[in-house]
Amino acid sequence: MRIGIDIDGVLTNVEQFSMDYFSRYCVERNVEYHIGDSSYEIAKTFGVSDELASEFWDEYLEYYGVHEPARALASEVIKKLKQEGHEIYIITARWRTNKDDAAGKRMRGIVKKWLDENEIVYDQLIFSQAQGERKSQEVQESGVDVMVEDNPGNIAELSEIVPILCYATGYNKECTGDNITRCYSWYDVYEKIRKMDKK
Q1: Strand extents, DSSP E, 2-132
Q2: At what angle do helices 14-28 and 50-67 cross, to 10 degrees?
Q3: Does pLDDT of 42 surpass 70?
Q4: 134 pLDDT higher than 70
Q5: Mean pLDDT in the chain?
Q6: In the chain, fewer beta carbons within 10 Å around the N or the C end?
């Protein structure tokens, strides 16, 4: 099987990073916030402006990209999948990686180095030009048989064309459907891929 894997929220716990560092960011700036239902957009989670969220990511994106660890056992499971003959396609729409400028080149370099340092093996790394429709096109073009994804918008779009293993987070708890299977750990991803491969 060709297995597509997203990075942010799947290989990393971007939800917890955002909760930890954005709450500090707000406190240090005396910005009032109200944490509500978890959303993929931190501005909605914290009840603050989109501008403040953008300023936060301007300041913290590189730090996150360099220092956020891979989820527990992600490397081990992906290596097992490779050893069993599966092909691994890392498909990410991380902010800035689609830019044809110095910042884009730098972020793509950070992603590649992070994958190497965290021992994430893969056959192909695809920097998606955008979320949603464009990512769907790239998933189709790469010929993946299943996609491990966390972004609710991407899950809705991609589940129309390929089975989705939804890496469970607070912000995607509503993501269910005939072509969507929720997964709660990397070994849970492994087990569900194993069962799919037997069909």
Answers
A1: 2-5, 87-92, 124-127
A2: 120
A3: yes
A4: no
A5: 94
A6: C
Residue type at position 199: K
HSE of 59, CA atoms in CB hemisphere, 13 A:
12
Q: Which pLDDT belongs to residue 100?
A: 80
- 166: which strand partners? 149, 182
Give the count of alpha carbons within 13 A of 86, CB side only: 26
- Give the whole-angstrom CA distance, residue 44 versus residue 85: 41
Beta-strand ranges (E) seen in 62-130 are 87-92, 124-127
Q: In the chain, which ranges are E strands?
A: 2-5, 87-92, 124-127, 146-149, 164-167, 180-183
- What is the spatial distance between Cα 180 and Cα 16, in angstroms, rounded to a whole number? 23
pLDDT band, residue 131 (cuts 50/70/90): low
Residues 6+ apart with CB under 8 A from 178: none
Residue 30: left (phi > 0), alpha (psi -120 to 50), or beta?
A: left
Q: Cα 114 vs. chain centroid, distance in angstroms?
A: 14
Average pLDDT over residues 140-160: 95
